[in-house]
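in:
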């Protein structure tokens, strides 16, 4: 008989996906962030728009309400991997083997992480401070679950943790913008470089799992394309962040 843990995890996954779809399809779409100076546009770059005054809230929510195909692809992959993992655990639970005694069960942590991730955009997404708390709690819980899942053939857990870390980094950048009034160039760089530092430390703590780095690299690429235009500062931050995570990815894979 299936234990209740995997069933609870699957229910939490379905709630997380439904909440994400509802948030991404709300009636007020998020505007894009652009630079004050003119920039070039092309097939891969969004058209120039005005900077919204609620930039501190828009930055992290860009991952939840995507504005381009790369952001949408990342979010859909997160949803799909978590659903497949939840269904797989109901069919063939992995927390019942010997690894459970060594690392502890995964489902309580990943269930709590998805619960917070499903809740904060609706209940805590109205002030930068609460956004940082919500995204930070999601990241801590998801990263702890990723550490337990390392080496247990569950890449969805670490991929979700990497995505959560990218959202948390964006929330920190938004908070810094609200507190210090930073320009978009600095804001975009802050959404990538601290996330790379957090990701490198977390990946070393998690262990052999490439999902975490893969999600962060994808997130950085999508974020850079969304915000940078032709600005070299944001482009340089994206290159540095992606290079750092690629280095850790190679180490984790080997």
């Amino acid at each position: 008989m299936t234990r209740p843990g995997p069933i609870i995890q699957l229910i939490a996954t379905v709630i997380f996906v439904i909440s994400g779809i509802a948030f991404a399809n709300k009636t007020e779409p998020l505007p894009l962030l652009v630079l004050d100076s003119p920039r070039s546009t092309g097939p891969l770059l969004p058209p120039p728009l005005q900077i919204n005054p609620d930039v501190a809230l828009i930055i992290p929510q860009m991952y939840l309400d995507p504005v381009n195909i790369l952001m949408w692809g990342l979010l859909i992959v997160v949803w799909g991997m978590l659903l497949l993992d939840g269904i797989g655990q109901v069919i063939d639970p992995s927390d019942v083997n010997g690894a459970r005694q060594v690392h502890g069960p995964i489902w309580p942590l990943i269930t709590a992480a998805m619960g917070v991730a499903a809740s904060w955009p609706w209940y805590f997404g109205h002030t930068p401070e609460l956004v940082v708390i919500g995204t930070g709690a999601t990241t801590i819980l998801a990263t702890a679950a990723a550490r337990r899942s390392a080496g247990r053939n569950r890449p969805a857990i670490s991929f979700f943790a990497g995505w959560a870390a990218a959202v948390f980094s964006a929330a920190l950048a938004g908070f810094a913008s609200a507190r210090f009034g930073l320009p978009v160039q600095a804001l975009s760089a802050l959404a990538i470089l601290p996330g790379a530092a957090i990701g490198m430390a977390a990946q070393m703590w998690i262990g052999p799992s490439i999902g975490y780095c893969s999600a962060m690299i994808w997130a950085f690429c999508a974020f850079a394309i969304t915000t940078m235009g032709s600005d070299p500062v944001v482009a340089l931050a994206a290159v540095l962040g992606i290079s750092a995570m690629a280095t850790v990815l190679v180490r984790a894979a080997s």
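note: The radius of gyration is 18 Å.
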